[in-house]
Amino acid sequence: xxxxxxLIDESLAGRTAAFxxxxxxxxxxxxxxxxxxxxxxxxxxxxxxxxxxxxxxNLEKFKRNSAFYTWLYRIAFNVAISRRRxxxxxxxxxxAREASGADPVDDGPRPEERLEQQDRCDMVRKALAKLxxxxxxxxxxxxxxxxDYETISDMLDLPVGTVRSRLHRARMQMKDLLQEVLQxxxx
Length: 187
Prior knowledge:
Layout: H1 2-12, H2 16-38, H3 41-57, H4 68-86, H5 93-100, H6 111-130, H7 133-144, H8 149-156, H9 160-186
C-alpha cells in the first residue's frame, strides 16, 4: 500500500509513468474480476480501460481512506453498470468463453477427469450467467476473488449487512440454479 501511495503522489506531481506502474500492477487483477461480472472478454477490456482512464482523470479526488484497488474496482463496477444500461449485451457467457478461449488448461489429470471438470465448470458458468447481477457480483468478489466483506462493501458502496445478505441469497440461488442446470444436462 505504501508503494501505491508513492505512485499516486508521483502521478499527481505530473509523472505519468507512475500511473502506468499502477496500471501494470492492477490491470490483470481488475480484468479478471470484471470478466467474471460482465461475462465478455471484449466488454471486460473496454470496462477496464475506461476505469483506468477515469481513475487517472479523477486521481486527485481519491481520498485514500480505502485501498487504491478498492477505489479502482468501484470505478470499474460503475463503468460496467453504465455500459450495460446503454446497451444490452449480445453474447452469452458461453459465446464469450468460446471467443476468448478463457478455459483453463490443465496438463495433470487424465482426459476423462478433464472432461468431468470441464462439465462442472460449464455448469457453474451456466448457473452463474442466470444469477441476477447484484448477486453474481458479490459472489464473484467473495468466492472467486477472495475479498472480505468489508472490502466488498467499500467496492460496491453497500453496507456490510447487505453484502452478507446478498452473498447468502446468491449462494442459495446458485445452489438451485446448479441443480436446474444439472437437470437440463441430464435430459
